[in-house]
Every structure is written in C-alpha cells, then in structure tokens.
Amino acid sequence: MRISTARLPELSWRSAIIALLLVSLLVPLVVGSDFFFPYVAPRNIFFRVIVEVGAAALVLALSFGRKTLDLHGEPIFWSLVAFLAAASLSALLSPAPTHSFFGDFERMGGVWAWFHLGLFFLLLRTLRDEDWNWILNGALLVSLVVGAIAIRQHFALGPASSSTLGNSGLLAAYLLMNLALAGYLAATSVRYRRLYFLAGGANLLALIYAENRSTVIGLVLGAIVGGFIFATVGAASRKKWIALSSAAILAVVVAGISLGIRAFPASAVTRHVPTVLQRLALTNPAGSDESRTMQWRAAIDGFKDRPLLGYGLENHNLVWSAHFDPGIYKIDTDIYDRTHNQFLETLATTGLIGTIAFLGIWIAIGLTLVRAYRAGRLSAPAVAVLAGLQIAYATYLFFWFVDLNSTMLWILIAALIASRGTVGSVVLEVRGHDTERAVARPALVLASIVVLVVALYGEGYTPLRANRALARIDSPKGSIAETFSELELVSNSAARQTAHTPIVMAEFIGSLRPRLREIRANPSQRRMLNRAFAESFAAFAREIHRDTLNDRLYTHEGGLLVEAAEFYGSPSYEQEAIDALHKAIELSPHRMEQRIALASVYAGNRDYERALVVLSDAVKSDPLLGEPRYRMAVAYIGVGQGDSALAMLQSSLRLGYVGAPETYLSIGKRLEFSGRGTVAAKLYSDYLEAKYTESVWNRSEAIDGPVPTADIAVAAHLPLLYMRARESELAIKTAAALSAFDPSRATLVDRFVSDVGSRRRANWLARSSLLPCSAARNGRPKDAIAFGACGVFRRKL
User: What is the DSSP string of 621-657?
Assistant: First the structure.
C-alpha cells in the first residue's frame, strides 16, 4: 500500500509559518535578566529572529512547486512599503543615518524595526481564514497571562502595574489591543462569546490598573466611534442603539467623575475612584505634564528645520537638543528621545513625506475596513470594534509612541482586516491536474539561506552579545579585569545599536576615580586602563562620526577626557575636554550639563573668572534655574567674593536647588567670623528648609533616610546663633530640627528650649553646638554622631 505524500510540502510550510507566528506572540513575556534595557532589547531581537526565519520559510515555499505571491489589492501592505521607503530616504539623508536605520538598545526602533513589522504583516497575510483563530486566540491567551501579572502587581505593590512590559503606559496600549481582539472574537463567535467577554473584562481590569490616562481617553473615544458605526450600519433594530448609548454613558461618567475630582480633590468619594481617573482629572498641561508639551513644541520647531525629510527616525533627541527648553529641569529629566506624540515625532523625524506615508497606513486600514464590510466578510459589530480600536490607538499615540508590544498587534489587526478585505491568502497555489510543470529556484533558495544566516548572525547574535556585555559594564559584578575585557568586546563589536556604548564605557571609567591611585600602582591594571581609555576614545570617535549633532556625546566625551587628564596629568587631554564641551554648548546652547562641566574644568584649574563667564551665560539662558547660581557661588568663593557668593546661594535656595553642605558652611563661617551671625543663621535656616522642607521645624515629624553629619552640625549650631542675636522665637523654632534629625536628642532640645524661654542663656553662650561637644572631645567617642558633628565647626574655613 502506497501512502500519498502530495500534501506534505503544503502542510510543512504553512505549519511552520503558523508555529513561528504563534511563537512571535510571546514577545511580551520575553524578559532577560542580564541585558542592557532588559524589557526592550531581548524581546526585539527575539521578534526579529522569528520574523526572519518565517520570511526565509516563505521564500523556500515559493521556490518550489506552483506557488506565487499575489499582492494586488493589498493597500495596507503597500502603504507599509511606502512608509518604509519614505523612512529609508529620510534616514539616508539624516544627520545620523546609522541610528535612524537601526536605533539603539533603549528603543530598538528605526527603519530596521519597521522592515520587520512589514515582514510580519506579509507572513500574517499568508494565513487562510481557518488559520486566523489560532493566531487570535494565541494572542489573547498571552495577554491574559500579562494581565494576570498586572492585576497581581496592583494588589501586591499598589502603584501603576507594568507587568512584564516594564512600563505601565506601554502595558496599557498592549492591553487595549487585546481588549479589541476579545471584542472582535466575541462578535464573530456565538459559541464562545461569554468566554471572550470574560477575557475582555480581565484585560480591561488590568488596563485600569495600568493607570494610563491616554489609553482611557482612547478607549472612551473608540467606544463612541464604534457605537456610532454600529448604530449606523447595524441591523434595523432598537438594540443597535444600545452600543452607542452605552459608549455615551461611559463618556459622561468618565467626564463627570473627572470634573468632580477636579472640583473636590480632597473629598471622600475621590479616594475610592480608580487612580487612573484621579490622574486624568488632575492633568495639568501647564504644570507637571508640561514636559510633554515641551517636546511637542520642540518637534514642531524641528519640522521647521527640515520640513521635507526630517531628522530621520529615532532622532528626536537631536530635535530636542537643538530646541532644548531649560524649563524641563524644574519638571522632569532633561533627556528625551521620544516626542510622546507619534504623529508630531513622525513629522519632525521623517518630514512631510514620511508623515503623509504614515497617515496613509491609517487611511488604507480604513478603506479596507469599508471594503470588507461591503463584501460581507465583516459584520457590523466586528467593523465597529476594529474601527473603534483604530481611533483608540490613534488617541493613545497622540500622547505616546509606537512600541513593539502594541505595534506588532496593531500590524496583526491590520493584517486581519486585510484578510477580510480579500478572500484567501496572498500565496496562490495551483492545484489539480495542471500541465504546467513545477518550477524550482535553487539560486533563490541558496540566496535566502545565505541572507538568513547573515541576518541571524549580524542582527541577532552580534547585538545580543554586545548588549549583554554592555549590561555587565553598566552594572559590573566581576573583577575589574573581567569588566575591562567586556569593554574590549564592546569596542570591537559590529553591533549597530551603539548610541549608549561610549557613554557607558566612559561612566565605568569615571566610577574608577576612587581607585585611580591603586590602579596606577598596579602595572597590570594600569595597562588595562590605558587600553580602556584608548578603546573608549575610539568608540566616541566612531559614534560622533555617525551622530555628529548629538551634544550628549560631546559632553560625555569631555567628561572622559577630564578623567584622562587627571590620570595622566596631561594638559592636552584637558584642552581636548574644553573643546568637546564647547562643541556640546554650540549644539545645544540651553542645556546646562555641558556648561556646568566646562565651568568645573575651569574651576579645577582655579580659573574662576572663566568659570564665572560660563555660568553667567547659563543663568541668562534660564534665570529660574538654581544649580547654575549655586555653581557661581562656588566660583565666587574661589575668587574671594563672599557677598556675591552669599547672594547666589540665597537665590539658588529660593529656586529650590540645594548643593553640598560644605559650601553653605564655608560662607556661614565667614559670616560668623565677620560678626554677621544673624545673616549666617538665615543662610543655615534657608538651607535646611530647602533641603528638608518645612517639616524640619516640626518635632513630631522624623526625617526619613540618613542625615549627613554636616546637617546635624548645622541643626545643632543654628539655634545658638539666633539665641545670641536675641531671636528667642527663632532659636526655639530652629532647635526642633535637631529632634527631627535625631529623635534621641529630644531631651537635650527640651532643656535648651526651657532655658531660652526662662532667659537662662548663660549655660549656652560659650557653646557652638547643642550637642555635648566637650564630652565628645575629651572622652572616647562613644557618641559617634556628636563627635563628628562637633568637629564641623572646629575646623578652619
């Protein structure tokens, strides 16, 4: 008996692609423990490897038999190709082409990422109608695992859940996609509808615990649009208005609760409202949320710089550097590589051409939805769900950005819509007794295998190895020799995601500063450090060549050159550091780090006049920043201008910046020595209040965390200054700081307060501290805190 094997090749290639697509859905569960950006790099590399293998399998299937690829009538696919072409052109002509093509380990985006998303779409379009249930149910099953972890985190940890995605905002978008998948499956499957509703409810609950405002707004708008579509195209029944009415009620409830919270933020009801609605109600574009609008303004200005092709994908950091707003220092981190508005980011990074192509994807999805409904391959509820998702995701992207976890599902849903817009797979197969002979293409097979091997090695293994090495440099756990070997590995790696490489290398070398004397004395370690310096400088040179407008590269290179100047005692390295910092200032004149670093180099050489010039420019750049004023105070101390230093310290404290305690002690001691004890007391008082808030004067509130010995010394010295100035109320008030720092001193503070209140000052006049300094000085230092604090005001200026 002969067994027919005629259908085995068909089963083989289709089964392989379905299996690979199912495996790709595990992306949100891929988290590496020893990776640089563990929530980003390993899962992106994993996804790309799976897609590359799947693409090779598709090419092999097309290389044998009578199969052809029919991409006619695929507007979504061609819109993706158009966007990829526009992004590639923008990247080629961008200031940082390599970064634009390949991104970095923090984001793993760029043209290369979109290329793989395009391949992912193509693989999904090889599915037949009966294959889709495997993919959709697989995606939903993975989301239930992710959502369950998010719900558990909420009850175990409290704050916004991030599950396995590491970021609550990115988690919310991922859950939004799966909420739509559950709705679509419920609309198309009567038998399992209740199960899909339960799955959607679980995803919705996890989404609420993610506490992302943008997704909630998108969900409400998407529900309204979906309800309107269902009411418009649904069957002639009163029930068709239920969806629209429910969406409208949801919108009214969310808006009403938000307005109520905004009007009565301290009410008892507010405490029982989901945190995401509280955050939504308290949104303040002119306050804590202004960092987003700053990025938007920078993106618009960046578009004006290069309106046609933009700066290239992944290059918002260059836009931000060129149009830096120093007001960001009062709100958030100054480092931004995302606009937090995907549409404005696309406008700034790919220009008009890329933006039109990106919007073309959304238009193609909408047109295909209409075509699928008119062809009868999508029901009214399914159209409502899928269209509502597009509105919801677009709303989310107005405040966020594309990310693999959610964007791959957006592509998956786009492919699902495309499969309903036409009948069958894009792979056409000739069946039956066709006389046409099967055509084999061995050259194409060989080429595809070679390309696959090169891609797996060059864009899979190589970046993976470099990433792990960077992680070990960033958080060294082994010996110094082992970390130096990792530097050599990274320096010689062919990985293209190199934006962080020289910076991490420089930071590691900077961390060795306390051990420089030991390393200098050890010939073996000195040789390794010499090589580390050389490799780090070479890494900076390569990266700056690739990314010439990145001011942060010059700033970090300047820091490394300062370390080299100190280690080798080389004036030439120091001059190179100055040149690098000047270049960084030229590229981003409003960013403070490079100005402060340059001023520190001048101050280290006792060239305080130049340091003051640099810092004066920093103050002019943003008069409301405290740190440049504090640095000016240090420079004024260096040139002996005490009054100017005092004025700068006072203004920096008013602006909320607190520097090193030694600076305030230096000025305070000078003031006391010149007979201006009250002025010194006011400086000390402002310093403590700015650093610890007004709670420092409340004896019932202990200060969290360790308190430096210098601050304890100031707290024990300050009341005596006010007492000598006969400011009894202030003496009593400020004495509370010592109790706040060290509750065990409460009895001592009570005695001082009692003596001051009873005008028994004689016992305190000759003392410089409330602490028992004579006992600490004459006996064994059993009271280590008192011993250390008492010594602060015995030292010379």
Answer: H-TT-SHHHHHHHHHHHHTT-HHHHHHHHHHHHHTT-
First to last CA, the chain: 104
The model's pLDDT over 307-357, given as tens digits with 9 standing for 90+, comes to: 999 999 999 999 999 999 999 988 888 999 999 999 999 999 999 999 999
- Residue 548: CB atoms within 10 A of its CB come to 14
φ and ψ of 154, to 5 deg? -60, -45
| CB-based contact 23:57 (threshold 8 Å) | no
Write the single-letter amino acid at 301: D
Write out the DSSP string of 416-480: HHHHHHSSS-SEEE--SS--SPP---HHHHHHHHHHHHHHHIIIIIHHHHHHHHHHHHHS--S-H
Q: Nearest-CA neighbor of 745 among 723, 767, 762, 769? A: 769
Which residues are registered as beta bridge partners of 69?
427
pLDDT digits (tens, 9 = 90+) for 772-797: 876 555 555 566 777 777 877 765 54
Whether residue 667 contacts residue 712, with contact meaning beta carbons closer than 8 Å, is answered with no
Tokens of residue 91, six digits = 């990247």
Q: Is 145 exposed, middle or buried (0-12, 13-18, 19+ CB in 10 A)?
A: middle
- Cβ–Cβ < 8 Å for 719, 731: yes
Among left, alpha and beta (phi > 0; psi -120 to 50; other), residue 581 is alpha
pTM for this one? 0.91
Angle at 673 between CA 671 and CA 677, to 5 degrees: 50
Element (DSSP H or E) covering residue 69: strand 67-69
Count of alpha carbons within 13 angstroms of residue 730, beta-carbon side:
16
Half-sphere exposure in the Cβ direction for 112 (13 Å, CA)? 25
Q: Are 483 and 90 in contact (CB under 8 A)?
A: no
Count of beta carbons in the 10 Å neighbourhood of residue 221: 18
User: How many residues can be counted in the chain?
Assistant: 797
Helix (H, G, I), strand (E, B) or coil at 218: helix
| Distance separating alpha carbons of residues 610 and 608, to the nearest angstrom | 5
Which amino acid would we find at residue 193?
R
Residue 708, SS3 per DSSP: coil
Both structure tokens of 728: 């009894």
Q: Which residues of 328-353 are buried (b: 16+ CB within 10 A; e: fewer)?
A: bbeeeebebbbbbbbbbbbbbbbbeb
